[in-house]
Design a protein that fits this description.
Shape: globular
Mean pLDDT: 89
Oligomer: single chain
Number of helices: 5
Strand content: 5-15%
Helix content: 40-55%
Order of helices and strands: EHEHEEHHH
Radius of gyration: 14 Å
Structural class: alpha+beta
Strand order of the largest sheet: 2-1-3-4
Low-confidence stretches: none
Length: 131
């Protein structure tokens, strides 16, 4: 199964992050689903992640990662030089997650909220799981 990014479909920052990943995941291994959709909710439940989580969720090899662990594991799939940031996985999560939580808590205030999601192109659509 391909790795899956579960993202906040209403968050401008999260949607821009998805666009960033789409452009830099050259092998197109990563698929996407919104946390608010049926597929996202089903995957959260399947992997024991609470519904309403305030984090990106990355599912890889049957395991769900959240917060900075999710973001840094996603970086492993990006083209150079972006994958270099995955080196921060060596930093203990309690240290990494502090900064992550500040951004997550303020993302709507700093980046805004969308009323509707951007429609993926025909090529991108195959990488978004059905809702």
């Amino acid at each position: 199964m391909k790795p899956i990014v579960l993202f906040d479909g209403y968050c401008n920052f999260c949607n821009q992050s998805v666009q960033f990943i789409l452009r830099r995941n050259a092998l197109e291994e990563i698929t996407f689903a919104s946390l608010q959709g049926h597929t996202g909710k089903r995957l959260l439940k399947k992997h024991g992640v609470q519904d309403g989580i305030d984090s990106v969720v990355f599912i890889e090899n049957g395991k769900a990662y959240t917060e900075s662990s999710a973001a840094l594991r996603i970086a492993c799939y990006l083209s150079y030089p972006y994958k270099i940031v995955s080196i921060f996985l060596i930093v203990p999560p309690p240290i990494r997650n502090g900064m992550y939580r500040i951004i997550a808590k303020n993302r709507y205030k700093w980046f805004g909220k969308k009323e509707v999601c951007r429609i993926p192109t025909t090529k991108e659509r195959a990488r978004f799981l059905d809702d």
